[in-house]
TrEMBL record:
It comes from the Bacteria. It comes from Kineobactrum sediminis. It is found in: Cytoplasm. Belongs to the TRAFAC class translation factor GTPase superfamily. Classic translation factor GTPase family. PrfC subfamily. GTP binds at residues 20-27, 87-91, 141-144. This is Peptide chain release factor 3. Its main location: cytoplasm. The lineage of its organism: Bacteria, Pseudomonadati, Pseudomonadota, Gammaproteobacteria, Cellvibrionales.
Length: 527
């Protein structure tokens, strides 16, 4: 890549993730996207999904992570663009990872099960997207089934998610009678052909709703479909690029991922409308994607992903400039230069060495324990990207050792696992306990397995009376000191060195917030 072509290369990147509730069809649609991008030849080759019975079996999980890592970041060319699709863990216990992955994308695709509508996991993930006004595409899936009334679904998106819904196409029937979709903007009917799920489907189309072919297709329902379209046009939002880019309006597509129908139409518009790499805020200044100097931040660390490699990979979003093999980077937090010769990427399901990467791309750095989530790398400038969230855990356990002599290893293990984001660890001010926090139960299993496997310590969990954690901030040092003294029994230092209030109950938290109006109790902190 010559220097001259960098702005062009950046402008054609489209970096996104899929948000959905489990079972809505994320894996299926991912596979069809890869098929359309020629990244795989036959559907059915994307693996790494957990079977229904394996949810708490860490060994299986690890094996699967070995496979699924090849699909953690998927790059493929489409329509003159380079698409980077970032996978997010399907299991809800890993939702923190998902949240952080959303800070590394420029847009998201929301997949909704048409029979179920907007489900709670989607609501949570949308709330995270809203923190940065991430533009959202919507795909209403499973049109080959009897789904809910499409108008109700649009209403639900608007009401529950607080975003305007602009249908781009409209389904013609559903379930067994599903005939295809009518594009409201191009006046083209795309005809549904069942049974083409594992291959690139033909695009059979009828031009014009007024055509004889359209009349023949709709038969006696022709007039009522015309009325329906009139109604939809009148009652729904028009697509506007600016409102979409501002995260206020979502274009909505109907289709069925399983039959690979409607996915291509969606992807065609996606690569046109979705934003090219956007700038990112650093504590010091705004960094724009077309700056020549290299910069990037780490949003995820994954350990032992591939059993044959047994290493830890730090996933970095390149924010500006270009990565070149062998380049020197400044590890800004440590103030140290590092030379990176072996960054990896995951093209078309293969883990390969990257020669070059530009803003919008994701590269994987081999991590030997010096990289943490949120770390910034540059070509010399001291920068710290902001906005990589750290969420208050929802479950807490006290951790104890079977062998008290191993407390050093335990500390070290927990420190590293918390830097990776696998768990959060809290050290109470007034005791020598160690409390771990997680977003989901499965995280605890992972932590004890890895403590045993990698740090040779056997840890036991005990219940602990903690309802939630809040990071404590106060601009007035004297008031903070006062609070620190009076509330010491409930205060801890987290893995990053931040003061944290561990509330025993919801009521207690509310009382404390009332009693200490100058103290800011925050449910998230930034790395
Ligand atoms: P994920 O949990 O969101 O990754 O969901 P999957 O892609 O694994 O899909 C969940 C289930 O829904 C699987 O059994 C899929 O075969 C099925 N599924 C996905 N898309 C469709 C579709 O368009 N129609 C139908 N009928 N089933 C689908």
């Amino acid at each position: 890549m010559s220097n001259l072509s960098i702005p062009y290369e950046v402008s054609r990147r489209r970096t996104f993730a899929i948000i959905s509730h489990p079972d809505a069809g994320k894996t299926t649609i991912t596979e069809k996207l890869l098929l359309l991008g020629n990244a795989i030849q036959v559907a059915g080759s994307v693996k790494g999904k957990r079977g229904p019975h394996a949810t708490s079996d860490w060994m299986t999980m690890e094996q699967e992570r070995g496979i699924s890592v090849t699909s953690s970041v998927m790059q493929f060319p489409y329509g003159g663009r380079i698409v980077n699709l970032l996978d997010t863990p399907g299991h809800e216990d890993f939702s923190e990872d998902t949240y952080r992955t959303l800070t590394a994308v420029d847009s998201a695709l929301m997949v909704i099960d048409g029979a179920k509508g907007v489900e709670d996991r989607t609501v949570k993930l949308m709330n995270v997207c809203r923190l940065r006004d991430t533009p959202i595409f919507s795909f209403i899936n499973k049109m080959d089934r009897d789904i809910r009334d499409p108008v109700d679904l649009l209403d639900e998106i608007e009401e529950v998610l607080g975003i305007q819904a602009a249908p781009i196409n409209w389904p013609i029937d559903m379930g067994r009678d599903f005939k295809g979709v009518y594009n409201l903007y191009t006046d083209v009917i795309h005809l549904f052909t069942p049974g083409q799920g594992s291959v690139l489907p033909d695009d059979k189309r009828i031009d014009g709703l007024a055509s004889d072919a359209a009349r023949a297709l709709l038969g006696e329902n022709y007039d009522s479909f015309l009325e329906e379209i009139e109604l939809v046009r009148g009652a729904s939002h028009q697509f506007e690029l600016e409102a979409f880019l501002a995260g206020k309006l979502s274009p909505v597509f109907f289709g069925t991922a399983l039959s690979n129908f409607g996915v291509r139409e969606m992807l065609d518009d996606f690569v046109q409308w979705a934003p090219a790499p956007l700038g990112r805020e650093a504590v010091e200044r705004h960094v724009s994607a077309d700056e020549p100097g290299f910069s990037g931040f780490v949003f995820k660390i994954q350990a032992n992903m591939d059993p044959r490699h047994r290493d830890r990979i730090a996933f970095m979003r390149v924010c500006s400039g270009q990565y070149e093999k062998g380049m020197k980077m400044l590890h800004a937090r440590l103030g140290k230069d590092v030379r990176v010769a072996d960054a990896v990427t995951f093209k078309a399901g293969e883990r390969t060495l990257v020669e070059e990467a530009v803003a919008g791309d994701i590269i994987g750095l081999h991590n030997h324990g010096t990289i943490q989530i949120g770390d910034t790398f540059t070509t010399g400038e001291r920068l710290q990207f902001s906005g990589i969230p750290h969420f208050a855990p929802e479950l807490f356990r006290r951790i104890r050792l079977r062998d008290p002599m191993k407390s050093k290893q335990l500390q070290k293990g927990l420190q590293q696992l918390s830097e990776e984001g696998s768990t959060q660890v809290f050290s109470p001010l007034n005791s020598s306990d160690l409390i771990v926090g997680a977003v989901g139960q499965l995280q605890f299993d992972v932590v004890s397995y890895r403590l045993a496997d990698e740090y040779k310590v056997e840890a036991l969990y005990e219940p602990v009376n903690v309802y939630t954690a809040r990071w404590v901030y106060c601009s007035d040092a004297r008031k903070l000191e006062d609070f620190r003294k009076k509330a010491a029994d409930q205060l801890s230092i987290d893995g990053g060195g931040y003061l944290t209030y561990l509330a025993p109950s919801r009521v207690n938290l509310a009382l404390m917030e009332e009693r200490w109006p100058d103290i800011d109790f925050r449910a998230t902190r930034e790395h």
